[in-house]
């Protein structure tokens, strides 16, 4: 499922992120790339243990927890702490698939990367190029969203970032281990959740609401893994 999640960050929060990121010291983005990805990756990245990164991670994670569309679409169990990158002056990231597992840096354990996420922190008018291209069975999808908006997509997807030819593309990226590992099952639950919400808004006392809500939770109970 490819999902656009709007307004994860407010205009003020985006401005605060950019204020700190524009003054930060960046390093070569290959520091977090796998063996194959490192061959295709050309960007700058904020060191993940820097004070700025830790502060902005908290801001992004708090916003995600409060966003109902993100929670409904991702059904998050674990979120890898958000990272921050910057593309400028022809930089790009060629075709790659994200690593299946990510080791937590400051905590024990791993995160299984069921879902990849990109949170845009620069307005589309600030840069040319830089589209996130995501391939699936329907072809390639170009994603370039307003600052503060997020895209979720299966981490199994082949994807790339087109070269930036003007300005700078600034974003946060991270991965989610979902309670429901299978993308098809997550999509069914998401569609059912939205249908229940729409029915509740249109016909709030409809007797089918209780039954459909029960179906949703029984499917979630069957498919979810909370360990």
Keywords:
single chain; 227 residues; alpha+beta; nine-stranded antiparallel β-sheet; five-stranded antiparallel β-sheet; 6 helices; 16 strands
Describe the structure.
By secondary structure, the chain is an alpha+beta fold. It has 6 helices and 16 strands. The strands form 3 sheets. Strands 1, 2, 4, 5, 6, 10, 11, 14 and 16 form a 9-stranded antiparallel beta sheet that branches. Helix 5 runs antiparallel to helix 6. The chain is globular. The model has no long low-confidence stretch (mean pLDDT 95).
Number of helices: 6
Based on the structure, what is the oligomeric state of the protein chains?
Answer: single chain
What is the overall pLDDT average? Answer: 95
| Distance between the ends | 23 Å
Please compute the radius of gyration using only Cα atoms. 18 Å
Estimated structural class:
alpha+beta
Spans of at least 5 consecutive residues whose pLDDT stays below 50 are: none
The count of strands amounts to: 16
What characterizes the major β-sheet? 9 strands, antiparallel
- Bulk shape: globular
Strand content: 25-35%
SSE blueprint:
Elements: E1 3-5, H1 11-22, E2 27-28, H2 37-40, E3 41-42, E4 44-45, H3 51-65, H4 68-74, E5 76-79, E6 83-88, E7 92-96, E8 101-103, E9 110-112, E10 115-120, E11 127-129, E12 132-136, E13 139-143, E14 150-154, E15 159-161, E16 164-178, H5 183-202, H6 208-223
Antiparallel strand pairs: 1-14, 2-4, 3-7, 4-6, 5-16, 6-16, 7-15, 8-9, 10-14, 10-16, 11-16, 12-13, 12-15
Helix pairs in contact: 5-6
What does this entry show, briefly?
The model has no long low-confidence stretch (mean pLDDT 95). By secondary structure, the protein is an alpha+beta fold. Strands 1, 2, 4, 5, 6, 10, 11, 14 and 16 form a 9-stranded antiparallel β-sheet that branches. Strands 3-7-15-12-13 form a 5-stranded antiparallel β-sheet. Strands 8-9 form a two-stranded antiparallel ribbon.
């Amino acid at each position: 499922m490819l999902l656009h999640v709007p307004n994860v960050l407010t205009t003020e929060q985006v401005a605060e992120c950019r204020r700190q990121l524009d003054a930060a010291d960046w390093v070569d983005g290959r520091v977090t790339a796998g063996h194959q990805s490192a061959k295709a990756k050309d960007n700058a990245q904020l060191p993940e243990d820097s004070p700025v990164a830790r502060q902005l991670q908290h801001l992004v994670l708090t916003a995600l927890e409060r966003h109902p569309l993100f929670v409904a679409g991702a059904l998050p169990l674990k979120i890898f702490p958000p990272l921050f990158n910057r593309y400028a002056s022809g930089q790009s990231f060629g075709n790659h698939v994200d690593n299946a597992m990510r080791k937590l840096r400051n905590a024990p354990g791993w995160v299984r990367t069921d879902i990849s996420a990109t949170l845009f922190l620069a307005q589309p008018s600030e840069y040319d190029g830089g589209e996130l291209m995501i391939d699936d069975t329907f072809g390639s999808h170009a994603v370039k969203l307003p600052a503060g908006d997020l895209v979720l997509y299966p981490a199994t997807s082949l994807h790339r970032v087109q070269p930036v030819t003007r300005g700078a593309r600034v974003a946060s990226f991270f991965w989610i281990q979902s309670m429901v590992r299978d993308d098809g099952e997550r999509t069914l639950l998401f569609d059912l959740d939205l249908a229940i919400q729409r029915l509740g808004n249109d016909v709030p006392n409809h007797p089918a609401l209780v039954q459909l809500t029960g179906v949703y939770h029984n499917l979630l109970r069957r498919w979810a893994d909370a360990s």
